[in-house]
Specification:
The protein has about 90 residues and is of the alpha+beta class. The protein has a domain of about 55 residues. Helix content is about 25%, strand content about 25%. A four-stranded antiparallel β-sheet has the order 1-2-3-4, with no helix packed on it.
Protein backbone atom coordinates (compact mmCIF):
# COMPACT_ATOMS: atom_id res chain seq x y z
CA UNK A 1 0.00 0.00 0.00
CA UNK A 2 2.81 2.40 0.90
CA UNK A 3 4.60 1.82 -2.42
CA UNK A 4 1.39 2.54 -4.32
CA UNK A 5 0.93 5.82 -2.45
CA UNK A 6 4.57 6.85 -3.04
CA UNK A 7 4.26 6.05 -6.74
CA UNK A 8 1.01 8.04 -7.00
CA UNK A 9 2.66 11.02 -5.28
CA UNK A 10 5.67 10.87 -7.62
CA UNK A 11 3.39 10.72 -10.64
CA UNK A 12 1.29 13.64 -9.36
CA UNK A 13 4.39 15.73 -8.67
CA UNK A 14 5.69 15.07 -12.17
CA UNK A 15 2.37 16.11 -13.75
CA UNK A 16 2.23 19.29 -11.63
CA UNK A 17 5.82 20.16 -12.57
CA UNK A 18 5.11 19.71 -16.29
CA UNK A 19 1.96 21.86 -16.14
CA UNK A 20 3.73 24.61 -14.18
CA UNK A 21 6.65 24.74 -16.61
CA UNK A 22 4.25 24.81 -19.56
CA UNK A 23 2.45 27.88 -18.18
CA UNK A 24 5.60 29.62 -16.98
CA UNK A 25 7.07 30.11 -20.43
CA UNK A 26 10.55 31.26 -21.25
CA UNK A 27 12.27 33.72 -18.98
CA UNK A 28 14.33 36.54 -20.42
CA UNK A 29 17.84 36.84 -19.07
CA UNK A 30 19.01 40.40 -18.42
CA UNK A 31 22.70 41.27 -18.52
CA UNK A 32 24.38 43.91 -16.37
CA UNK A 33 23.84 47.35 -17.88
CA UNK A 34 20.60 46.51 -19.71
CA UNK A 35 17.70 48.88 -19.11
CA UNK A 36 14.46 47.47 -17.67
CA UNK A 37 11.06 48.85 -16.75
CA UNK A 38 9.25 47.85 -13.57
CA UNK A 39 5.53 47.60 -12.90
CA UNK A 40 4.42 50.65 -10.93
CA UNK A 41 1.06 49.32 -9.79
CA UNK A 42 2.53 47.93 -6.55
CA UNK A 43 4.10 51.19 -5.40
CA UNK A 44 2.66 54.31 -3.80
CA UNK A 45 4.05 57.41 -5.50
CA UNK A 46 2.13 59.93 -3.39
CA UNK A 47 -0.63 60.63 -5.90
CA UNK A 48 -4.09 61.33 -4.41
CA UNK A 49 -5.70 58.52 -6.44
CA UNK A 50 -4.46 55.30 -8.01
CA UNK A 51 -5.72 56.58 -11.35
CA UNK A 52 -3.00 59.25 -11.42
CA UNK A 53 -0.18 56.92 -10.38
CA UNK A 54 2.46 55.75 -12.82
CA UNK A 55 1.87 52.43 -14.62
CA UNK A 56 5.55 51.67 -15.18
CA UNK A 57 8.74 53.12 -13.78
CA UNK A 58 12.13 53.29 -15.37
CA UNK A 59 14.08 52.47 -17.31
CA UNK A 60 16.60 51.38 -14.69
CA UNK A 61 19.94 49.69 -15.42
CA UNK A 62 20.53 46.17 -14.15
CA UNK A 63 23.50 46.00 -11.75
CA UNK A 64 23.69 42.21 -11.39
CA UNK A 65 21.69 39.02 -11.21
CA UNK A 66 21.01 38.06 -7.58
CA UNK A 67 19.01 34.84 -7.91
CA UNK A 68 17.38 32.60 -10.48
CA UNK A 69 14.86 35.28 -11.51
CA UNK A 70 15.93 38.18 -9.27
CA UNK A 71 17.90 41.26 -10.29
CA UNK A 72 19.44 44.21 -8.50
CA UNK A 73 18.71 47.52 -10.21
CA UNK A 74 20.41 50.89 -9.92
CA UNK A 75 17.56 53.08 -8.70
CA UNK A 76 18.10 56.83 -8.09
CA UNK A 77 18.00 58.10 -4.48
CA UNK A 78 14.84 60.14 -5.12
CA UNK A 79 12.88 56.87 -5.59
CA UNK A 80 12.90 56.06 -1.88
CA UNK A 81 9.85 53.78 -2.04
CA UNK A 82 11.37 51.39 -4.62
CA UNK A 83 13.46 48.49 -3.34
CA UNK A 84 16.43 47.82 -5.66
CA UNK A 85 15.97 44.03 -5.69
CA UNK A 86 13.25 43.18 -8.23
CA UNK A 87 11.73 39.87 -9.35
CA UNK A 88 11.70 39.14 -13.07
CA UNK A 89 7.94 38.76 -13.29
Amino acid sequence: MRREVEEALRKTNQIMKERFNKKKGNEKEFAAGELVWIDGSQYNDGQPTKKLSFKRAGPFPVVRKVGEAVYKLKIPKMWKNLYPIINES
